[in-house]
Amino acid sequence: MKAAELADAPVTQLPPVRLLTIVCCRLNARAVSTIVSDTHVTDFSVENEPILGYMPGSPERAELEAALRKHESQMADVPIMIGDKEYRTDEVRHQVMPHKHSHKLAQFYYATSELVQKAINTAMAEREKWERVPLNDKFEMWLKAADLMAGKYRQDLNATTMLGQSKTVIQAEIDSAAELIDFLRFNALYAKEGVKWQPRSPTPDVTVNKLRFRGLEGFIAAVSPFNFTAIGGNLAYTPAMMGNVVLWKPSDTAIISNYMVYKIMREVGVPGGVVSFIPADGPVFGDTITKAPQLAAINFTGSVPTFQRLWTQVGQNLSNYVNFPRLVGECGGKNYHLIHPSADATSVVNGTIRSAFEYCGQKCSACSRAYIPQSLWPQVKEGLIATQKELKVGDVKEFDSFTSAVIDEKAFKRITGYIDHAKSSPKLSIVAGGKYDMSVGYFIEPTIVETTDPHDCIMTEEIFGPVLTVYVYPDEKVDDMITVANTSTPYALTGAIFAQDEAWLAKATDALKDSAGNFYINDKSTGSVVAQQPFGGARMSGTNDKAGGLHYALKWTSPQTIKQTMVPLTQMSSIHI
Ligand code: NAD
What we know:
Blueprint: E1 24-26, E2 40-42, H1 59-72, E3 76-78, E4 80-82, E5 85-87, E6 92-97, E7 100-109, H2 113-131, H3 135-150, H4 154-165, H5 169-194, E8 207-214, E9 219-223, H6 229-241, E10 245-249, H7 255-267, E11 275-277, H8 282-291, E12 295-301, H9 304-316, E13 326-330, E14 335-339, H10 345-357, E15 367-373, H11 377-390, H12 409-424, E16 428-432, E17 436-437, E18 443-444, E19 447-451, H13 457-460, E20 467-473, H14 478-487, E21 491-492, E22 494-498, H15 502-511, E23 518-521, E24 538-539, E25 558-565
Parallel strand pairs: 3-7, 9-10, 9-12, 10-11, 12-13, 14-15, 14-22, 15-20, 19-20, 22-23
Antiparallel strand pairs: 1-2, 4-5, 6-7, 8-25, 16-19, 17-18, 21-24
This protein binds nicotinamide-adenine-dinucleotide.
C-alpha cells in the first residue's frame, strides 16, 4: 500500500522499539463508503523479548532479590474477580511454596457453581461492548501490558513464579518474563497481519466484500495448568484480544503469578467483565461451564484425563448449546530422544540432561524416554552420570540451583511411584539419582533409569517429573527404534533425533512425521520459543493449535462475510451474481 493512500489513517503511539514504521494501513481503502467501516490497524513490528542474565551485581538480580523478599514475607489474599467485584467464599485454600511447603504464600477462595454462573452472566453482559472496541485499541493495550511486564512488573512476575511454582531464576525468566511477553506481542502482531486479508472485490463500484472479525458468540472458558505462567496468560488473553469474553480458571498451584497477570491486564484497561479470574475446584468449574448454553469454546492446557472429561461433557450437552463449542486442548506427552550410532555423544548428554531435568521434568515437552545405541552407551552413560552429579537441587532463592521441588504432594507421590517401580522391577535399574524427600519440600533427585523393555510403563506413561528412562538397543536395530519411538505411546507432543548420518536423519524425519507436533534434529525436545517454534502436539497430546504461531489468534474469531451491493438491483436477471 502506498503512503499517499494512508495519509488519513490514524497513528497510534507505540514505543519506538517496536515501531517499524509510523505508516498505518487502511484495509480495503476506497472512495465509496460502506456500512461496515474499514478495519484500521497500526503497523508495528516486534522482536522476541531478550532473556536477562541475572549475574551477581546486575540490576535485574538486585530487583529480583527485592521482589523475592517482598513476596515471601507476605501472604497474598487473592479474591475471585468477576466484573469489577471481588468475591470470597468459605472454601479457603492456600498456595504454598513447593520447596518449603510449610510456608503459605497466598490465601485464595474456591468459587461456587453459583459464582461461576454469575461470571458467565457478567461476561455475556460485557460481550457487546467489548466486541465493539476496535482491534487496534486492543492491540495497543496488549502491547502496553507486554511493556509493563518487560519493565516494572518483570521481577514481580518472576518472583511469584519462582516462589509459587518452584522455578529457578532462569526457568522463571524464560516463562513469566520472556514467553508471556512474547505471547502478548506476537499474538497482536499475527492478529494484525491476519485481519489484513480481505476477500476480493473485483468490481468495487458494484459490490464490496468484507470479512468482519467477530469474537465468538458466547463465552470462552480458559483452563490453565500450573507449569507455565505464560500459558495462563495466553489461554485467557489471546481470545480476549480478539473480542471474546473469558472465564479464566487458573491452577491452584499457580495462583499468585496468574493473579499478577490478571492485575496487569486490568491496569492497561481490560474491563473487569472481559476476563473473570475464577479459582475453583476443577470439576465444579468444568461441570458448570459445560452445562451453560453460551459456552463458545474451551481453551485448555493440562492433562489428557481432564481434557477428555471436558470434551465428554461438551458432547453430552451438545444439544443445549447456542454454538458448537470450539475445543482447544494442549495435553500431555511422552517425549523421546532417539539417538543414532553416528550422533555426537556430548550433544546427546547435554541435550538430554537439560530436556529431562530442567524444571524437574515438569515441562510438557520434557524428554522422558531415550533410545541409545549400544556402541554409544558407555560414553553417554558416563556423561549423564557425571552431569547428573553436578545438578544442584535446592531452594529457588539459591541462584545456583539447577532445579527445585516438584509442584505438590500429589505429583511427588506419582513420580516417586515410578522411581519405586524402577527400584523393584527386574527389568529396570537406577543409573543415577533415585532419592527423594518431602519433609521440607517436594524434592526428588534427577533420576536416570535403564530398562530392558522399551514397552515398560515407565517408557509409555507420562510421568511429568525428573525421571528419564533409557533403552539401550543393538546398533543394527536402529530402524526398529524409529517404529518404537513412533508407536509405543498414545502421545505425539515433542521428539528429537540425534545423528550425523544425513541420510538416516532424512529417513527418520519422514518416518516420524506423525510422532510429534514439535520435532527436533540434533537438539533437545524442550525450549520452544514463541514465533520461532509454534507449539502443540497431536494424537492424545492435543488439538495442535500451535500457540505462538500465526494462526492461533484468528482461531478466536468467528468471521462474518459481508457483501454490500452499491447499485440498485434493477433487473431480475442481473449480470452480477
Ligand atoms: P491438570 O489437568 O491436572 O490441570 C489443568 C487445569 O485443569 C487446572 O487448572 C485444573 O484445576 C483444571 N481441572 C482439573 N479438573 C478439571 C475439570 N474436571 N474441569 C475443569 N478443569 C479442571 O494438569 P496440570 O497438572 O495442571 O498440568 C500438567 C499437565 O499439563 C501435564 O499433563 C502436561 O503435559 C500438560 N501440559 C501440556 C502443555 C502443552 O502445551 N501440550 C503445556 C503445559 C502442560
